[in-house]
Amino acid sequence: MGDRSTYESSTVLTISDMPAAAERGDRAGNAWRRYAAAVIVCGAITVVAAAVAPWLDAANIVMLFLLAVAVVAWRLGRGPAIATAFLSVGLFDFFFVPPRYSFAVNDLQYLLTFSVMLVVALIIGELTATLRQHALVAGMKEERTRALYGVARDLAGASTLEEVVRISSAFVLTIVHAPSCVLLDAADAGLRIAPGCAPECGTWVDLSIARAACAGDRCSDLDGPAAVTYFPLRASEGVMGVLACARRQRVRRC
Predict the structure, then answer these.
(1) Which of these, 130, 157, 197, 233, is most buried using a 10 Å CB contact count?
(2) What is the three-class DSSP state of 191?
(3) Which CATH architecture group holds 158-247?
(4) pLDDT tens per residue, range 109-161
(5) Ranges 47-51, 92-96, 241-245: which has the least confidence
(6) Segments making up each domain of the chain, as ranges
(7) Distance CA 181, CA 202 (A)
(8) CA angle 199, 205, 210 (to 5 degrees)
(9) Whose CA is closest to 212, among 197, 230, 224?
(10) Cβ atoms within 10 Å, residue 200
């Protein structure tokens, strides 16, 4: 295959693994937006703190910045929360610690304040981000379980191969958020796109790579118009065909 495809040792397709690549790609694509949102939150909390500063002492202003770290960690994740923690310390020093509008510190006691503020902000951000991650995982498991029950019910009522393929493709689209195509291994004609697949499957499926996957290895084509992964479909009689999953968004070769 040259450099057109990559081969991986795993040959078993599991539902829990299928969304992972898509989620990683989505996170990478939105990373800069999350960090930009964290900066906006820090700016907003600074404006609020400046407005109420005449009625609050320094300790209460610190609480506002810690609140910002918690909100960012819950909504945007661990990385933006860490950035918010460091940025909050800098903003508090620059705008609210004498001499103002300078990073110079006249009272060395504020160095302890900064250190404790940073440590507490990092701990809050880490704990909140971990809680957020657990909530997301629980939601994903619930979604997959619901989808599995639905596809099992639909497959039980399917009477033709075309219906089975259509139901399976809809299930993969729901879980992975990517189009898929089923190729069945006909002994006399080789791999063929199964009836019930979308007509545009032929534009991104590479039969040569699909045949390599049918031989037993999971393959990934990273050079075509879409990044496609080919999974062998195993049964007790052997490999019955290949499931091809395409991502509209290119993924980086590891």
Answers:
(1) 197
(2) strand
(3) 2-Layer Sandwich (3.30)
(4) 888 888 888 999 999 988 988 898 898 889 888 888 888 888 888 888 877 87
(5) 241-245
(6) 19-140, 158-247
(7) 9
(8) 130
(9) 230
(10) 11
